[in-house]
TrEMBL record:
Span of domain HTH luxR-type: 147-212
SUPFAM superfamilies: C-terminal effector domain of the bipartite response regulators, CheY-like
UniProt-recorded name of the protein: DNA-binding response regulator
Organism: Micromonospora endolithica
PTM-bearing positions, type 4-aspartylphosphate: 53
Lipid metabolism keyword on record: no
Response regulatory domain: residues covered: 2-120
Keywords per UniProt: DNA-binding, Phosphoprotein, Transcription, Transcription regulation
Protein's UniProt keywords contain Transcription regulation: yes
GO terms classed as biological process: phosphorelay signal transduction system; regulation of DNA-templated transcription
Molecular function (Gene Ontology), one example: DNA binding
């Protein structure tokens, strides 16, 4: 898998690169010190995963994420936000902008490598406990009308699948809960993403909370 590193701290980039280059199945294709250069390199190299810092000069990580998500030629690029601060409002803004998830920079090396592979598969990097705390802190209550309207176009089974995605379940776990095949579960999730114009599962999670389909207090 091909990885792009975008961080304004050279020492951190070097550490991440050394870790990734040590894996047989991962290649670091480019590095950038700001979001504008990162965006240009994403268009040039079409990586599977872009690891993007939030706070950078020229263009921050949230704007870079938004532009990557809005570019049809970069539909296959999964943006993972790197943050020093853990749960904060910037992370939620990044998820709304199209990020597939986020990692705290002091993550253990084996967890970091696992996360890159998870993102490359197209899965969201959103542990249920972390998601719940993030949404409780920053998502508006009561539910947002636009989000509720968007979910109104889903079938009952698609709504159920989205709710289970928001609880951190994989397609196999959704299949077990709904008593359907894994392929059918994947179909429900993909159709919901298409109807909601969601880039990935992470955006489904945010929409599920913002619409009131799922409540943090109910988890």
């Amino acid at each position: 898998m091909r990885v792009l590193l975008v961080d304004d701290q050279p020492l951190l980039r070097s550490g991440f690169r050394a870790l990734l280059d040590g894996e047989d199945d991962i290649e670091v294709v480019a590095e950038a010190a700001d979001g504008a250069r990162g965006l240009a390199l994403a268009r040039e190299h079409l990586p599977d995963v872009a690891l993007v810092d939030i706070q950078m000069p020229v263009m921050d990580g949230i704007e870079a994420t938004r532009r990557i998500a809005a570019d049809p030629s970069l539909a296959g690029v999964r943006v993972v936000i790197l943050t020093n601060y853990g749960l904060d409002e910037h992370v939620l803004h990044a998820l709304r902008a199209g990020a597939a998830g986020f990692l705290v920079k002091d993550i253990e090396p084996e967890d970091f490598l696992h996360a890159v592979r998870v993102a490359a598969r197209g899965d969201a990097l959103l542990a249920p406990s972390i998601t719940r705390r993030l949404i409780e802190r920053y998502v508006a209550e009561p539910p947002l009308p636009d989000a509720r309207t968007a979910l109104a176009g889903l079938t009952n089974r698609e709504r159920q699948a989205v709710a289970l995605v928001a609880r951190g379940m994989s397609n196999d776990e959704i299949a077990d809960r709904m008593v359907i095949s894994a392929l059918t579960a994947k179909t429900h999730v993909n159709r919901a993403m298409a109807k909601l114009h969601a880039r990935d599962r992470a955006q489904l999670v945010v929409l599920a909370y913002e619409s009131g389909l799922v409540s943090p207090r109910g988890l």
